[in-house]
Design a protein that fits this description.
Blueprint (H helix, E strand, L loop, with lengths): L6 E2 L10 E2 L6 H9 L4 H7 L5 H16 L7
Antiparallel strand pairs: 1-2
């Protein structure tokens, strides 16, 4: 999956937070809703401009960001 087709950042849109391309739906919003127990179907109903592939892209994007993180043990 080419994440650039689905996820974008722009400093002029929501201070550069990663969003689903063509929307103002943040990757963070999708992750928080899923963490709260929302299903894909519930997200798709709540955000009509969202597609299943967008949710999958948000998850993949998050995994890539975390894979690049350096852990600091204190």
């Amino acid at each position: 999956m080419d994440l650039k087709e689905r996820i974008t950042t722009n400093p002029e849109i929501l201070l550069g937070k990663p969003v689903i391309r063509g929307t103002r739906i943040t990757v963070e919003t999708i992750l928080r809703k899923l963490a709260e127990g929302a299903t894909f179907d519930e997200l798709l109903e709540a955000y009509p401009s969202l597609h299943r592939e967008d949710i999958l892209a948000a998850l993949a994007y998050s995994a890539e960001v975390l894979a690049g993180e350096e852990l600091i043990v204190s």
